Amino acid sequence: MFAGETGKIAGKVIDKSTKEVLIGASIIITAKWEDGVEKKINETKGASSDLEGEFYILNIPPAEYSVKASYVGYKQEILTHVRVDVDKTTHIEFYLSQETIEGKEVVVTAYSPKTIEKDITATKQVYNVSDVQNIAGVASLTDILELQADVIDDHFRGGRVGESLYLIGGGSIVNPLNNSRAFSPIVTGLQQVEVYTSGFSAEYGNAQSGVVNMVAREGGETWETRIEGSTTPPYYKSFGGSVYSPSNLDFYNILKDTKAWLMENPTQPGRSLFDLGYSFGSVYLLPTRTTLKDSLFIARLGQIAFLTSIRDIGLEYNNTFDTRIDFTTGGPIAKNFKIFVAARQNIDHPIVPTTNPDISRQVMSNLTYEPNQNDKLKFRFVLDSQAQNILTSSWLRWIFDRTLGITQSTQVTKQFGLDWNHLFNQSTVMEMKFNILNVSNQERIELLREGEFLEKYNNKTNWVYYQGTANYYVGRPNDDRGDQKVTTYDFHGNITSQINKSNLLKSGLQLAYYILDVNRDMNIVDAGSYRKVLF
């Protein structure tokens, strides 16, 4: 099964004075609220009250609506800002007053509907993007999730990354290779986000810790375009200022003095207190036995190698701006056709200066066609591009060599979707969805071409792998590289039927097919030590 993208309105129509139910009253959704503005709906949805004065309307996209009730001999009443959430029933009640002469309709503007979920066993929170996108710092799905007290860095209630399910348009955006989210949808391209943190039902497969169900925004009845930009002034992204400041490097203040290199190690008489560094001897010392004790020559060479390796001492890099540009537009393009496009470019500089910043670009779009009131077709497309610097947790590898020690990663994700929604009658609706998710990832090492090994540069000594006194590395690239390509095809179909006013039946089918193409080289020091991962 897969997550829903619509909600339901149910309620009752009552005579205000006698408190008797009104049979056959007409209930119609007349308008939709967007950014505080009421906009008329061309294709209205509605229902009639039954013998008990009750009604329900299925298959309503999440948003805020104006709902009108009318009955012969009674004043019309309109409830505004009726919020519909995905997979929820919003309960409303109309109290109509009798009138002898037709007059003005009654508008209830401060109405607060109740959401009725008698069968709920899960802990969940629903976010309307229009309510949170103007909050400072909320720009992506990750930012919305961090509004939850029990979600930290994609960890749901203490669970691990990879134990959660992410859905957009009813289709999964999880990379099956590592079970992580393939991309983070931009806020401006979403209508609503539903977050389950525990107790979710079997409707959500392949999830252990949490479920995030996202509903994409669609084009409205009128054209709207929005452009937004933001920038972050230069600042150090680490505590204490520049990580290359002498005040933050105690070993530098000690080892810049040549005398420190002449100090004897009391546990190893005849050797210096400070290690000259891995590979120092094989490059700079004669191929004979050499005593380091009291050797100013060797001490000076060791100090020079040390100072060369930390040549970034005193580097100031608080002069770069992080920038973000958002663009959204949408509206009708022809009769019964609507389009919506959201795009973003984000430039972010890592915690230390790098050759290139992290650059991400994303486009979310959909085209909807409603030939009649009972059918709706939608084509969805998402393109996400990420160019990032991979800063591993072992900072000693890259802090003083950010050209060779940092791997460049490029990932391109594409999602295609085709949806068909058909309303058989007021009580039964069918949804069919076909999704394709393609994730292509490439990791490359600077200065190495395909098929080359690290020994090529070690042997020619055009740079030297050196491990300094403080255990940091220079001149040593990461030794992994490769490509990963994953394609997921999945089909979902379900039928939802309101059997009676108290029971709703939902059944469905899900089929998924995966194509995995992995070609990675591990430990590419030389032809004898590397291993290939291929499947």
Helix content: under 10%
CATH topology of the largest domain: Maltoporin, Chain A
Biggest β-sheet: strands ordered side by side in the sheet = 19-20-21-22-23-24-25-28-29-30
- Structural class designation: mainly beta
Mean pLDDT: 84
Low-confidence stretches: none
**What would you give as the CATH superfamily of the largest domain?**
TonB-dependent receptor, beta-barrel domain
Rg measurement, Å: 32 Å
Report the CATH architecture of the largest domain: Beta Barrel
**Total beta strands:** 30
The general outline is: elongated
Number of helices: 6
| Biggest sheet character | 10 strands, antiparallel
The span between the termini is: 29 Å
Q: Which class of the largest domain in CATH terms?
A: Mainly Beta
What order do the helices and strands come in, and which of them pair?
Elements: E1 7-15, E2 26-34, E3 37-48, E4 54-60, E5 63-70, E6 77-84, E7 89-96, E8 106-108, E9 114-116, E10 123-128, H1 129-132, H2 141-145, E11 151-152, E12 155-156, E13 164-168, E14 171-172, E15 174-175, E16 180-181, E17 190-198, E18 210-216, E19 224-232, H3 250-255, H4 280-284, H5 296-309, E20 322-334, E21 337-348, E22 358-372, E23 375-390, E24 407-425, E25 428-444, H6 455-460, E26 466-467, E27 473-474, E28 480-500, E29 503-522, E30 531-534
Parallel strand pairs: 1-7, 6-8, 13-18
Antiparallel strand pairs: 1-4, 2-3, 2-5, 5-6, 7-9, 10-17, 11-12, 13-14, 15-16, 17-18, 19-20, 20-21, 21-22, 22-23, 23-24, 24-25, 25-28, 26-27, 28-29, 29-30
